[in-house]
Each structure stands twice: as C-alpha cells, then as structure tokens.
C-alpha cells in the first residue's frame, strides 16, 4: 500500500473507531494534506484492495468492522455508538477499540424477530445459547461482500436457522455458537487501527479460522 493510501485508510478507521462516524471531507483533507481528487483516488484504490466497501451511490458503507448504516447490529460503548457490519464485526469492535473494552451488542433474530443483546468484552465470550449462521463460504465473500455481511447473523437457535432457510430458500451455511463467534472476532482485526497495516493473505486467514475451531470447506481449510 502506498503511504498516501495508508494515511487515508488510517484517518477513516481512526474516526470510525473514535466516533462511529466517517470523518468529513474537510477533516479528511486536513488530516492527510490531500486534495479532493487525491482523496477520491486513494479511496477508490482502498476499495479495490478491500479496505473499504462502497454502496450503490459510491458512498463508504463498510470499513470492517465498522459500518456506516444498519447491518442489523448496534454496538454501544460508554461513549460511542457504532453500527457493526455483521455478527463477526459487532463482536470484534470491543476487542479492537482500545478505549471501549466492553460494549452492548444488540440485534434481532432474522427468523422470528426476537431481540437479543450481550455485553461483549475482551475477557471471554458472552453467555448465551444463541447461534451464528454465516451464509456465504469464505472463498466467495468478496463476490458480493455487502450481501455476505448482511447474512452473517445471530439466531435464537438452530430451529430458527432452519425456519429462516425454509422461508428464504437459502442453503445452510456455517452454524456455530457464541463462544466460537467471539474467538473468531477477538483477534481478526488486530492491528487495523495501527500503521502500517497488512491484510491477511488467504492462507493466513484459513489458518486463523482453524485456530479458533472453524474447519472445513466453508472456511477454506478442509483437512
């Protein structure tokens, strides 16, 4: 990544971590020393490198684990309220943001609408009998990352997963408990608020998934 793009990436991520909101164009220009056209070019390149995700109107909707619109997860710290980009991202935020080591993560079951919330900390998984269901295999997440994130959800239990699959006609993805979700989220974004940041390569990602107990074709690490 170029120094210019890394400055822009860090400024965007730092603002989202601190406030839950994107920096204004003026603030971003002041912090990076770049012109509007240079910022636009940098953000396009960051999106191409999968550090940012644009919506239909070329606006930033995801800078994982942060979202700029509702993806069905709110994350409330003592001073900051975030949108989590998915179940994975929502559980990751209190593990990543240094000044907010505990947060209330809230969502609703996609099948029945039951509200759920957990206090998520860095100390260990929250208590709960709910289950996570990820629809899209890891190898295909970036085919349509917004759709993939919208379908990384938490359900009351496996019967609600089955009901939702029947109602939507989707095929079953990966189902796992909250403890596994927390382990997946706890260190996935380590270093993202620092600089320089390097994304995991696919082999490294597959090894990380295995280290938290997620193994098989869905995760790209079948024995």
TrEMBL record:
One Gene Ontology MF term: alkylmercury lyase activity
Alphabetical list of Pfam families matching this protein: MerB (PF03243)
Superkingdom to which the source organism belongs: Bacteria
Xref: Gene3D superfamilies: 3.30.450.410
Record's protein name: Alkylmercury lyase
